[in-house]
Amino acid sequence: MVGGVSATRKTPAFRLTGWGRPPSLADVAVPEPAGAEVLVRVEAAGICHSDLHVLDAAPGALPYRLPFTLGHEIAGHVAALGAAASGVEVGARVAVHGPWGCGECRRCTAGEDNYCDRRAGLSWSGAGLGRDGGMAQHVLVPHARYLVPIGDLDAAQAAPLTDAGLTPYHAVAALKPAEDAPVVVIGAGGLGHVAIQILRATTRATVFAVDVREEALALAHRSGAHRTLLSGPGTGSVLRRETGGADAVLDFVGSDPTLALGASVLRPGGTLVIVGSGGGRLTIAKPGPLPQGASVSSPFWGNRRELGEVIALARAGGIRVETELFPLAAAGEAFERVRAGRVRGRAVLLPG
Ligand code: NAD
Ligand code: ZN
Ligand code: ZN
Known about the structure:
Rossmann fold; six-stranded parallel sheet; 2 domains; seven-stranded mixed sheet; Quinone Oxidoreductase, Chain A, domain 1; 18 strands
């Protein structure tokens, strides 16, 4: 054993090695957990559109140090414990709460790493985002508090629930829409189709789903959307007419046109929730594109307690992530399919 890694055992991991270079499979040593760390044997790791944003980032745009293993939606079982790790046992099946923060501030110690007070000074945003993540056979988790038990839940379900489930759950929990309140979901992909299910399972809102792909709208319909609309020039006026003004818009794209669409269909006092990192811009001005009394939020991921609630909701049958499964060896091909918009729901890698 040298420097916290086993000198002999090497297994494949899907790693980003240079900005602007495609990620690739490389053999890495299996890490040995030290201190409070926990080694998790990965059973499944989801591919998020944020991974593509990371791959497309210009050098210097993100604070991450290279190389690192991608993968921030992770589920598996505990393989080994550091000497100071407690609260979890070898063999326990777990989902990983991914938005690792500094680990020490009040937010982090309360399980709210997604809003770590020291986030701006960190060189990572979480597992697989500047730190070695789950597109590998093993992931070294800094502390047992990042693990949520999943019981007998399928790992290919649990992994995407840690982000494609947790992020919309956190966003919806902040909304509390009234009965029959119109809520618009823009982008029914990995996050969006789960958002629709969460809206249906936890609120009595009337859900409108918008996408540019017919296949995504079919998934939105199966996920419980009351009304689905193919995005086009007339979508704003149709939505304004049919909703009478939306109480909330959840934008899972975040591009210029979707932000403009979202702002234009809100009712006065409505909320625009920008989840997608599409790099679009929206002018906040008075007077401006937003109706009077509007709120805008840009939630990031969700907290540990909410991840427990998402897992419980899934185990009770309230959420089912639509997945397409790929072996880890086909990670490159799976990423290209996500980029081409050819995945229904979530692509999930199985390290085997
Ligand atoms: P995805 O690729 O699975 O889904 C995106 C969907 O949006 C697709 O169905 C696509 O057809 C649709 N779409 C694209 N352009 C559109 C348009 N102009 N109008 C309507 N629909 C359109 O992506 P995902 O993994 O669900 O991620 C969605 C976004 O959320 C990404 O930008 C990702 O980076 C971001 N994200 C943010 C957080 C957060 O914490 N805020 C967490 C995870 C992902
Ligand atoms: Zn993500
Ligand atoms: Zn912190």
